[in-house]
Amino acid sequence: RKYKKKYKDIQQELEEQKATSEQSSAELNEYQRQKIEAEITAAREQCELDYKAKLTELQKQSDERVQSEKERMRKLVRALLEREAKLKRDIKATDTTKKEVKKTKKKQKVAQPNEDNGADEMVQSAASLSSRRKKQSRKGVPRPSSS
């Protein structure tokens, strides 16, 4: 009897220990699960903050690039328009100069008709004579005979 009673007490104590150990392991598991979830939540929040910071930085850089490209395009367009305006001014100036030259040539022709014809003919005949030079003969090379 004595041993039976001790046996029952020990068995009851063992069951209580099992129950408390199961309860404590369940609590420990729950605590670990909550701790892991908290770490995951903290990591997720940190990643979201990093993502938002990087996103805003990239948007800022993109906006700066867009603004610099717009400014560059404005400068290019302005330079192109200035170049076109300069070309138009140059063309107008050239046209007016050509008209003035034509007017002065017409005035000169009207004032001195056919006085330069003799000099022009002499220059033309001198030019044609210089182009009619004879071929120089090569020494030591026999000429073909025409007989």
Automatic annotation (TrEMBL):
Question: What is the protein's name according to its record?
Answer: Uncharacterized protein
Residue ranges for the region (Disordered) are: 84-147
Ranges of Basic residues composition bias in the record: 100-109, 131-141
Q: Which domain of life is it from?
A: Eukaryota
Here the segments flagged for biased composition (Basic and acidic residues) are 84-99
